[in-house]
Structures are given as C-alpha cells and as structure tokens.
TrEMBL record:
Membrane topology per record: Multi-pass membrane protein
Similarity section: Belongs to the peptidase A24 family.
Alphabetized UniProt keyword annotations: Cell membrane, Membrane, Transmembrane, Transmembrane helix
Ranges of residues in domain Prepilin peptidase A24 N-terminal: 15-96
Pfam families attached to this UniProt entry: A24_N_bact, Peptidase_A24
UniProt GO cellular component terms: plasma membrane
MF-aspect GO terms: aspartic-type endopeptidase activity
Sequence intervals crossing the membrane: 6-27, 101-120, 151-172, 193-221, 227-246
Compartment(s) of residence: Cell membrane
Full protein name: Type 4 prepilin-like protein leader peptide-processing enzyme
Chief location: membrane
Length: 247
C-alpha cells in the first residue's frame, strides 16, 4: 500500500507522532529514573490510580480533564501534552523533509523520538539514558544504509567524536577539576558521529557549541545555576542537521 499523498501524509505522520509522543512521555520519565518501561501500567503520580484508555488519549485526555487527574483532581503536568505535540510536529516535519519516502521518514522520526526522550531526561534528571542513545545509534546505522551513505565513515566518525569528547573531559578534569562532559554526552557524540558522518560532524560540533552557550545563558538567567545539561543542545544540533543537512 503506497503512503498517502498531500495533506493525508502530514495528518497520518502527526497522528503517529502523537502516539509516539505518548510513549516518549513515559520513556523520558522512566528511563533516567531506572524504572522499567513496560512492567507496570501508567498511573497518576498523586493518587497512583491506574490510568485507563480515556486517560491515555494523547493531548485530548489532558484537555478534556482540564489538566487534572479524573480520579483525585490533582494537576497533571503540562509536560505530557507538550511532548506529545512536539513529537507530532516533528513527525510531520520528517515526512515533509523526506518528500514522501516512507522508510526515510520513519527512520528520521524514530531518531527524533530518541532525541526528544534524551532532551527531556537530561533536563529533568541530568541523565542521558543509554537505551535512548542505543536506539538513536541503531536507527542512525539503518538510516545511513537506507540513504546509501558509507557506514564505515559513520562508524569512524562516531569513534573519533567519542575520542575527542573523552579528551576534552580529561582536559577539563585536569585543569579545572570538573567534568565538562558527562559520559552520557560522550556516548551521544558517538551516535551523532555515526548519524552524520565526516561531512557533517564539524558543523554539528560548532552548532552544538553555539546552542550550548545560548542555552547556558538562559539557564543562568532563569536562576538554575551555572551547571547546565548539555544534552538538549546536542540533541537540537543533531536534529537540525539531520533535517536540514549542510552541503
């Protein structure tokens, strides 16, 4: 069955994005806290009442309940609809940038889902979950194969990016006594190198640095301290270059 054309393709992509966005809300909460993804049903964080089908419709359930639990009346965080809407928009953008190529759009969307999970987890817990990075790397390898890009180039670029990150981590530890990069950042750089290859890694490093500086300034102005998670800047830079490659 061929993929839908025109508006139908965008609508289907957005609907799938809402579904994957619902998964992303759970994954971004559970993975950095060491909780299993599928071992227990979702429940209200306040009253622990298990959520049923009417509570789990992406965005709509939150809107109909006016952002409150149907059972205890406690407020439900806006993170849930925000992540779901962001994922829906991302899926539609992946479809647009893939020009109707369903497999390419699907792989881009899966990488985008991993990037959203990584961003939220690092913002909330200062942790980049290994499972999300592994998913990103696997999808990146499949995407390079699907795009007929040399896999070896991606692998070598990933190894080089990790080596550079480890060198910077060691240097900052020796000179300033701090870990400028967490191990999660190092692993992420390996996955990013695999996805982008040698032709895009330099723009990625520059863009992630610029975004990191901007994010760090906003973080400080918001009174969150001088130490900020670097994962969101890395994820944003990788996502932008996957969707809008240079050259």
């Amino acid at each position: 069955m061929p993929p839908p054309d025109g508006l139908g393709g965008y609508v289907l992509a957005a609907l799938l994005g809402l579904i994957f966005g619902s998964f992303s809300t759970a994954a971004s909460y559970r993975l950095p806290r060491g909780l299993p993804l599928g071992a227990a049903r979702s429940a209200c964080g306040a009253c622990q009442h298990p959520l049923t089908a009417p509570d789990l419709i992406p965005v709509l359930s939150w809107c109909l309940s006016k952002g409150r639990c149907r059972h205890c009346g406690q407020r439900v965080s806006w993170r849930y609809p925000a992540i779901e809407i962001a994922t829906a928009l991302l899926f539609a953008l992946c479809w647009h940038q893939s020009h109707g190529a369903a497999i390419s759009a699907a792989l881009l969307a899966l990488m985008g889902t991993a990037l959203i999970v990584i961003t939220v987890a690092d913002l909330e817990c200062r942790i980049i979950p290994d499972a999300a990075t592994l998913c990103l790397a696997l999808c990146a390898a499949l995407w390079r194969w699907q795009q007929a890009l040399p896999l070896l180039d991606g692998l070598l670029t990933g190894v080089a990016a990790m080596a550079l990150a480890m060198a910077l981590r060691w240097l900052f530890a020796r000179l300033r006594g701090v870990n400028a990069l967490g191990l999660g950042d190092v692993k992420f750089l390996g996955a990013a190198g695999l996805a982008l290859g040698s032709g895009q890694i330099a723009p990625f490093l520059i863009l992630s640095g610029l975004l990191g500086v901007a994010f760090g300034l906003v973080w400080r102005l918001a009174g969150r301290g001088s130490v900020f998670p670097f994962g969101p800047a890395l994820a944003a830079a990788l996502g932008l270059l996957l969707l809008f490659p240079i050259g």
